[in-house]
Amino acid sequence: MDNANCVGGCKFETRSFQYRRRIPYSLGADPLPPVHPLSLKNLVDIDTDLISSQLYELYDSIILNDSGLERRYAFVQKLEQILKKEFPYKNIKTSLFGSTQSLLASNASDIDLCIITDPPQCAPTTCEVSAAFARNGLKKVVCISTAKVPIVKVWDSELQLSCDCNINKTISTLNTRLMRSYVLCDPRVRPLIVMIKYWAKRRCLNDAAEGGTLTSYTISCMVINFLQKRDPPILPSLQMLPHLQDSSTMTDGLDVSFFDDPDLVHGFGDKNEESLGILFVEFFRFFGYLFDYEHFVLSIRHGTFLSKRAKGWQFQLNNFLCVEEPFHTSRNLANTADEITMKGIQLEFRRVFRLLAYNCNVDDACSQFTFPSLTDTSFMDDYVNELQLEIVPGFSHGRDSSDTSCTESPPEPSHFAWAFDPYNATASPYYNQNINSSIDYSSIYSNDVPAIPPNVPYTFVDPYTYACYINNNSYLPPSYMDFYTWYNSPYPKSSHHFDERHGGDRHEKNLSNSRRYSRNKFHKKKQSSGPFQYYPDAFSFTPTDNNSPPSNSSSSEVVSPVSLHSEPVLSTVQAFKS
User: What number of other Cβ atoms are within 10 A of residue 18's Cβ?
Assistant: First the structure.
């Protein structure tokens, strides 16, 4: 019998919770405005040593101790004995997975257990397992057979422990092995993941089922990818390292092989000397302000970011944050959170960064979020107003008014050459290098530049997208208007803005798409009519020829940050003329 086909006749089949949305709809889904990295407080001005000491002290108090581990093993043994007694002919074994096995459990963590039968076809249903547990004196037995992964929840009043049991979902044990291998690669990984999971639990942001947010496993994958992208990297991609791959490494048609000897890669991240406090602060800076949620997918399998367009995820439901499942690569782990929820979580990231940057207080950053009573409607309104204060990075709240180390405006551009590389989450986004002060760069940084009148036919290079292109030859802007866009446009990366400017003429947009395909040599050259002529070299920029204009460009020039491979400079770039 299928595990999930027991709805209706099972008295344990009930909702174990009342769904309470964590991020209210009133926050809205309007995208957050971009924030200049130089407007954020510099890392050298933050007392990361104090933050590290607080983190380690809190980590030692919450991490699962030996006595807690013994209680968990005793509970698992008790459950296995019950199952073998109730189902003597099922050849049942149990396997721990989740945070307990991956060394990421705290004293308050639940137990995750996989019930394995041989053969799998003779497995009992979740309702049968629920009834067996109830007959043997276990409390609070709940059967959730309609979930994506059917589970049985059970509570032991003697050991004061709860457990979630699934049946024959062995892929979960492989995910745990992979996570454990990453944890053992570097001594900073375990405390960093544990503390970020602790923050998420305190802020009620790790409950995908009840609050519509993220799972703890998704958050752990975000941390792993963040550490893989440090400069220099702290973690490798264990699935990309050479390892044994044969028929035994295939499960449900998926390649689940990886390099599983962490001792051989221990010391991989020794060149990176960042402390726990630095990594904790930079995690929230990166996902609060710097990560491009619109275009990229987090992939620990590849140890980098992937393009949403390349994976075909740009039109998926709930795809604001995309985290690739390391084995089942067609699955987005973060699709449990919709766009409004992810906007709220991103603002929560910003809140933590502000509190750490100006107060250096981990307890304040991890303060407990408590849901209000159902009759208290003003609480969530106040919470939304508090989140909206994080949209503008002025940080006027929660810091000393005499602190002038960070302002809403970036530093004087004549002293810095700014170039932001979204492929590398570097600790400091600016370079101490004098540049040519004879050129007026104020139009790049100033918020007071008047909008260009609609009748002026010039477009300007979007610095963020151009930096992506220059830094990676394989990167292709998702659309024509992502690469060349109106400066100060309210829709800087929107294809709808392109349609509005040209009267909704889809034919012209299709012509620009054909130029994108021609650059990859997927289509033969063909002639097209319209205001834009078809040229195979329309996007002929290369990292070694940054100033070469496209073949159909005008002579108009604008200043844009370019060439992140070499010494960063600000140089002129040819712009298209519409």
Answer: 7
